[in-house]
């Protein structure tokens, strides 16, 4: 009877819960206290919680408590007694519209809850709190609900245990705040465990659980953020759909696995892992919240597993209701207090019936206020804040360890806590490790030995004995090795010890030895003096050792090609290479045109034709137009001013321009005009710049050219067809090498010819090129570049383009388990720049392999400035040609040119030519000689002083007589004297004494002439001047050296002073 009563009571409770949680809200003891002001608009929110029959009371109590605290002002901003939005809106527990949702609701049920429960009462936000962890349909339903809410523009404050399964892109596009720890928090906590125990490398294992791609991406992003403090390596990322997918883990070096799946999927994965023997004391599995779920443990889980977990119990969910309501209240408070939102309402006015708006326009704005809140957290914890993606900033996760319980069953036990807001956020107690041990696994494979075969070839492999005292490497960049001369000596107790060093060996001791426990301190390599080619269908050398499994790895300058890849496995290339040609530089002679090479042809044409002639014409033009110069009257200027000292013409301008350009120390005639002089200075500035540039570049060309055979490449016709060139070039390579096999395949004639010149080693080939025994040596491009850089005299040079480009790689036997390990390290070294730094360190030598580089210095030889002598010789020959032309001019051309040049046109072009055509020019020349005449003896000086004294006394007497005349009332006439003075002092003349007589050379103006027959002057000027000339007793005679029709006047008898003063102009006619 008592049991029946209990059943009836349970049935009544179930029936009462069908109307939902809504009927219970508002029935608490505090209803009267927070009844609210019914005149204010209502502020409504929605609440979705898991469906339960016994948790209604807890939900109701949490809602009432949270709303009551808001009205009491708990959690309010500092300085406020209560939340100010409660003065504008009515917010009571009855405005929290709640509904319970089952584990896997149908889409119709989700739509009904939105339309009937929430939109009908104008909710401004939805609180979505679910603790289901099925990661199947429950995750899908949650995703569907959140996307619908985002489409309607209603913000969602969520706390769901399976939030890691939500699609990150969809959640980021919706208006969602997540209160539960995110997938990023879980990955950060898991990697903190790995960092604590120095596990650098691991693998990621996932199932097809929702969000598995997001988990891998979150791991990669966290690794990228931590790369400055701790370096991780993801060996593999495996998506398990079938048990055999775990074979990749079996063949890898991974000993630490991160697992993300559901608990059911994890059971199958770990069962397969146990079968493949990748569980146990050497393997660590770290799992996520989704694997642990509700702490129930399947028997298939191995002991010692680690995991991250957060509380998803009903009690934790109920406590999050208060947090969610506080977040909402803080967001409303900030929204209402912002003056910009005075005209905006928090009533959505949405409907599923086609009435009203389809999306709440204010929802995006309101969500920004919710996202920026800072709610006071529990004691000892930071405030509740969110990132820009709506993810909780500060999260706390429990670190769980699977260990035997009291009943010997495996149970999840909390061993520590991870706090995201602390720098050292991980706090862990004692752990039971895999295999029930108390020491953590190494996280890497056990140490092993590698048998390495290599071929000594600088700079990739270089052998050197260790220090005889310490037995260690003499350089930092080296590996101490034990070397056997052949495979039979590997087991010997006393192998030869050497130091294995150089590129790329440097990085592997640290990169592999420390992190993977590969024993490289004393490896057991074979020393091979053979190459790796195929002969008669069989492999020899290095490749043969790999094919026959005599070695684990080949490390040398081994070029990757398709034939080798068919039988062995190569790592990713660590350096590009190809087939190149090295030749020697030979000293040649300097080019005859070396002095012209600082500028190209166009530059010389621009300077020689445009600049020089333009400057010449402009200077002459400015001088012709200047008032200080010719004043645009050059003909009348020369005729009316026959005694002028202004000597300027086109040729003299040309001479000026050339002299300034080359800064020649020669006599030049400068222009008088200011503009012409300014233009001359501009040209001088141009000359300074031109000569500076020319001189700076001249040194690079005035040296001997280093000649070499500039082949275009291996396919150059002089090499590919060796018999087509006479004499034939001598070149070779190393037989049975990659270069030799490539040439044998594609250049059969060339390969057959070069056999006679092949060398056994690279050093022999280089020496043959240096000594001239061979013209060229063909081999791997990077090796030849290195040897060229190491040549101290810079006598070597690689020429042409590289042929058959490929790369260097490390070779392993087929399906070697070490391949991926070395591939990963090589990729890391390439990404962080280590390979490039090593290349610069080892490949750089004393000589840079450039065509213009020469390290050695020698005294200058004749051929190094031979072009200067050639230039001088050309100048001498050109001067001889000009001398011949000058004689031809005076003998044959001048007399014909004088007949046609009446106006002095030739003087405009060349003043010297103009002088040679007229007597006037001869007089000018004499004037130039006599103008600077100075007395050379005391008698001359005495006579000159006497004449000047007489002249001064005569002037004094004349002034005295003029005063006497004025005293008697007679005013002397000044016109004749002024006219005579103006005329006599304005016309040039030159006098000299010969045989006791004074002679004068004078140039008459056009209206003066002398009749030689009648011995009479015909002067068309004033009578006064005529009388003065007759008084001077002028005698005319013909000078033989000038010949007719030129004449001069001879003065005899009268005063030399008066004669020279009067006779200053004569007629040009005779």
From TrEMBL:
What GO cellular component entries does it have? postsynaptic membrane
The signal peptide, as residue positions, is 1-17
Residue pairs linked by disulfide bridges in the UniProt entry: 115-352, 794-847
**Per the record's keyword annotation, is Transport included, yes or no?**
yes
Q: Supply one GO molecular-function term.
A: signaling receptor activity
Which residue stretches, if any, does this entry annotate as coiled coil?
A: 944-971
UniProt entry tagged with the keyword Hydrolase: no
Chain sites annotated for binding L-glutamate: 564, 739, 780
Superkingdom of source: Eukaryota
Q: Which SMART domains match?
A: PBPe
TM segments? 602-622, 682-703, 865-885
Keywords attached to this Swiss-Prot or TrEMBL record, sorted alphabetically, are:
Cell membrane, Coiled coil, Disulfide bond, Glycoprotein, Ion channel, Ion transport, Ligand-gated ion channel, Membrane, Postsynaptic cell membrane, Receptor, Signal, Synapse, Transmembrane, Transmembrane helix, Transport
* Ionotropic glutamate receptor C-terminal domain ranges (all copies): 505-845
Family to which this protein belongs? Belongs to the glutamate-gated ion channel (TC 1.A.10.1) family.
Put simply, this protein is called Glutamate [NMDA] receptor subunit epsilon-2
């Amino acid at each position: 009877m008592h049991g029946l009563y209990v059943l009836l009571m349970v049935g009544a409770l179930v029936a009462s819960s069908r109307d939902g949680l809504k009927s219970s809200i508002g029935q608490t003891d505090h209803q009267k206290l927070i009844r609210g002001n019914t005149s204010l608009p209502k502020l409504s929110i929605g609440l979705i919680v898991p469906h339960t029959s016994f948790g209604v009371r807890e939900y109701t109590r949490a809602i009432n408590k949270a709303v009551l605290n808001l009205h009491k002002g708990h959690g309010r901003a500092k300085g406020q007694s209560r939340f100010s939005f409660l003065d504008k809106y009515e917010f009571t527990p009855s405005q929290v519209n709640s509904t319970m949702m089952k584990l896997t609701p149908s889409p119709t049920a989700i739509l009904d809850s939105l339309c009937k429960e929430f939109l009908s009462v104008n909710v401004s936000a939805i609180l979505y709190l679910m603790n289901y962890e099925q990661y199947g349909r429950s995750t899908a339903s949650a995703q569907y609900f959140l996307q619908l809410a985002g489409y309607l523009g209603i913000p969602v404050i969520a706390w769901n245990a399976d939030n890691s399964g939500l699609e990150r892109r969809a959640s980021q596009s919706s208006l969602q705040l997540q209160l539960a720890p995110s997938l990023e928090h879980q990955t950060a906590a898991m990697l903190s465990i790995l960092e604590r125990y120095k596990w650098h490398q691991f693998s990621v294992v996932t199932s097809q659980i929702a969000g598995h791609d997001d988990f891998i991406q979150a791991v990669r992003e966290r690794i990228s953020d931590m790369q400055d403090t701790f370096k991780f390596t993801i060996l593999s990322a495996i998506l398990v759909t079938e048990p055999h997918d775990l074979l990749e883990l079996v063949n890898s070096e991974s000993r630490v696995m991160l697992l993300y799946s559901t608990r059911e999927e994890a059971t199958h994965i770990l069962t397969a892992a146990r079968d493949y023997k990748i569980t146990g004391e050497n393997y660590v599995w770290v799992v996520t919240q989704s694997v642990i779920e509700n702490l129930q443990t399947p028997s298939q889980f191995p002991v010692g597993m680690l995991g991250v977990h957060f509380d998803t119990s009903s009690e934790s969910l109920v406590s999050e209701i208060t947090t969610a309501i506080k977040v909402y209240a803080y967001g409303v408070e900030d929204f209402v207090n912002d003056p910009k939102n005075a005209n905006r309402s928090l009533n959505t006015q949405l409907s599923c019936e086609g009435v009203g708006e389809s999306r709440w326009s204010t929802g995006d704005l309101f969500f920004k206020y919710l996202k920026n809140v800072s709610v006071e957290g529990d004691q000892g914890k930071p405030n509740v804040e969110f990132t820009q993606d709506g993810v909780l900033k500060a999260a706390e996760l429990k670190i769980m360890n699977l260990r035997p319980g009291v009943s010997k069953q495996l149970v999840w036990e909390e061993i520590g806590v991870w706090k995201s807001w602390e720098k050292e956020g991980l706090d862990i107690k004692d752990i039971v490790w895999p295999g029930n041990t108390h020491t953590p696994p190494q996280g890497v494979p056990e140490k092993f030995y590698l048998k390495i075969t290599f071929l000594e070839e600088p700079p990739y492999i270089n052998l050197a004995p260790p220090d005889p005292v310490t037995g260690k490497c003499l350089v930092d960049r080296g590996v101490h090795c034990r070397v056997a001369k052949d495979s039979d000596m590997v087991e010997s107790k006393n192998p030869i010890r050497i130091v294995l060093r150089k590129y790329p060996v440097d990085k592997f001791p640290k990169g592999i030895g420390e992190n993977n426990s590969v024993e490289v301190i004393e490896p057991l390599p074979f020393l091979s003096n053979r190459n790796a080619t195929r002969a008669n269908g069989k492999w020899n050398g290095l490749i043969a050792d790999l094919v026959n499994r005599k070695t684990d790895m080949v490390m040398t300058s081994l070029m990757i090609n398709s034939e080798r890849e068919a039988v062995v496995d190569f790592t990713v290339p660590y350096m590009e290479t190809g087939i190149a040609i090295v030749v020697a530089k030979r000293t040649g002679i300097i080019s005859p045109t070396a002095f012209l090479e600082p500028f190209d042809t166009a530059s010389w044409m621009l300077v020689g034709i445009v600049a020089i002639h333009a400057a010449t014409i402009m200077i002459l033009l400015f001088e012709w137009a200047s008032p200080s110069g010719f004043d645009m009257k050059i003909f009348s200027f020369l005729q009316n001013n026959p005694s002028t000292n202004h000597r300027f013409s086109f040729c003299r301008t040309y001479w000026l321009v050339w002299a300034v350009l080359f800064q020649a120390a020669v006599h030049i005639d400068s222009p008088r005009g200011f503009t012409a002089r300014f233009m001359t200075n501009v040209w001088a500035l141009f000359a300074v710049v031109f000569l500076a540039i020319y001189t700076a570049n001249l040194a690079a060309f005035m040296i001997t050219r280093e000649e070499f055979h500039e082949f275009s490449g291996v396919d150059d016709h002089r090499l590919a067809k060796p018999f087509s060139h006479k004499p034939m070039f001598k070149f070779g390579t190393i037989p049975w090498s990659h270069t030799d096999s490539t040439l044998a395949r594609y250049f059969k004639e060339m390969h057959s010819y070069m056999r006679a010149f092949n060398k056994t080693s690279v050093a022999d080939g280089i020496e043959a090129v240096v000594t001239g025994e061979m013209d060229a040596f063909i081999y791997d491009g990077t090796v030849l570049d290195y040897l060229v850089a190491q040549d101290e005299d810079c006598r070597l040079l690689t020429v042409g383009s590289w042929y058959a480009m490929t790369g260097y790689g490390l070779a392993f036997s087929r399906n070697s388990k070490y391949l991926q390990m070395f591939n990963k390290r090589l990729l890391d070294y390439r990404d962080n720049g280590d390979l490039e730094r090593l290349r610069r360190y080892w490949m750089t030598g004393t000589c840079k392999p450039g065509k213009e580089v020469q390290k050695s210095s020698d005294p200058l030889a004749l051929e190094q400035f031979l072009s200067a002598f050639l230039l001088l010789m050309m100048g001498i020959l050109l001067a001889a040609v000009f001398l011949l032309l000058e004689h031809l001019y005076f003998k044959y051309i001048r007399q014909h040119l004088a007949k046609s040049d009446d106006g002095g046109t030739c003087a405009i072009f060349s003043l010297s030519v103009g002088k040679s055509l007229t007597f006037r020019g001869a007089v000018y020349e004499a004037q130039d000689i006599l103008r600077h005449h100075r007395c050379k003896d005391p008698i001359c000086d005495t006579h000159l002083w006497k004449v000047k004294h007489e002249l001064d006394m005569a002037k004094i007497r004349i002034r005295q007589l003029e005063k006497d005349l004025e005293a008697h009332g007679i005013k002397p006439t000044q016109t004749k004297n002024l006219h005579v003075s103006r005329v006599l002092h304005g016309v040039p003349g030159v006098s000299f004494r010969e045989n006791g007589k004074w002679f004068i050379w004078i140039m008459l103006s056009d209206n003066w002439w002398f009749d030689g027959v009648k011995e009479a002057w015909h002067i068309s000027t004033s009578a006064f001047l005529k009388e003065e000339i007759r008084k001077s007793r002028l005698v005319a005679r013909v000078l033989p050296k000038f010949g007719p029709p030129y004449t001069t006047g001879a003065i005899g008898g009268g005063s030399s002073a008066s004669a020279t003063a009067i006779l200053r102009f004569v007629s040009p006619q005779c």
